[in-house]
Amino acid sequence: MPALFVSHGAPDLAVLDTPERGFLEGLAADLPRPRAIVSVSAHFETTRPAVVADPAPETIYDFGNFDPRLFEIVYPAPGDPQLAQRIATGMREQGQAVDVLEQRGFDHGTWVPLTLVYPQADIPVVQLSVQPREGPEHHLRIGRMLRDILSDDVLLFASGALTHNLRELFSGGMPALDAPAPDWVNDFGDWVGDRVAAGDEAALLDYRARAPHAARNHPTDEHLLPIFVAMGFAGEGWNGRRLFAGHSRGLIRMDTFSFQ
Predict the structure, then answer these.
(1) In what order do the strands lie in the sheet with 36-45?
(2) Can you state the angle between helices 136-149 and 81-93, rounded to 10 degrees?
(3) Which end of the chain is more exposed for a tag (fewer CB within 10 A), N or C?
(4) DSSP state of 206
């Protein structure tokens, strides 16, 4: 089972006719069917790792001013409390403090892409948080812990964005959906893709110093942190490849990567 990093973009990915939506709708056909999914979402932020043990998570509409159709979507996938507790126990045994939350619904970083990849919502989903105050190395370690805990039939689904500068996105009015990507966005996205293809973990961990326009594309880390969990889950000497490359509204790269 590969570990995936999916750029989820804006919530309206779930309703718009775009190349990235079409890609995600066909992604499951190229994957073994998982018994369960562990979703690491950039929109689930905590000071230390937290895992959700809710047996029936609600759908959270953690956004506003988007297409009204989004507020009619419900993603009724079950949770898996036993898997959540196993993750918490395994991380604690490896020296990592972790919280178990009994109630937290699916944020749009989880349900928007999953409603396209697994629209039947018949696979249990357990959510795991990111820690914005920690860096890439911390999240790589979390991924390696999960590799020692989870069985081979669990899909690690890391959901974020390859580029994510909302201040610039909104500063001049919302760009057209098919607006061209500026060089500073593509230079960063292509650099990450090249480093993933080369298996250059050291460069990726130090992306803020080494990647072109890193701080401009990620004023804060949280939307790229899930990729490091996916890298860690794939183990040392991982192989990574880009499954899809694209962009939305010019500034948001929508790339998806697979790590094994």
Answers:
(1) 99-101, 50-52, 125-130, 36-45, 154-160, 3-7, 256-259, 240-244
(2) 110
(3) C
(4) T
Burial of 182: CB neighbours in 10 Å, binned 0-12, 13-18, 19+: middle
Strands (E), 53-113: 99-101
DSSP state of 7: E
3-state secondary structure of 167: helix
Beta-strand relationship, 50-52 and 247-248: unpaired
Chain centroid offset of residue 6 CA: 5
Which of 85, 88, 224, 229 lies closest to 147 in space, CA to CA? 229
Q: What is the Rg, in whole angstroms, of the alpha carbon atoms belonging to the chain?
A: 17
Phi/psi at 143 (nearest 5 deg)?
-60, -40
Query: What six digits make up the tokens of 251?
Result: 């500034």
Would you write out the chain's pLDDT as a tens digit for each of its 260 residues?
Answer: 899 999 998 999 999 999 999 999 999 999 999 999 999 999 999 999 999 999 999 999 999 888 999 999 999 999 999 999 999 999 999 999 999 999 899 999 999 999 999 999 999 999 999 999 999 999 999 999 999 999 999 999 999 999 999 888 777 777 888 899 999 999 999 999 999 999 999 999 999 999 999 999 999 999 999 999 999 999 999 999 999 999 998 899 999 999 99
**Could you tell me the pTM of the whole model?**
0.96
Q: What's the CA gap between 160 and 163, in Å, rounded?
A: 9
Cβ-contact 109, 10 below 8 angstroms = no
H or E segment at 188? helix 183-198
Residue holding tokens 């944020």? Answer: 107
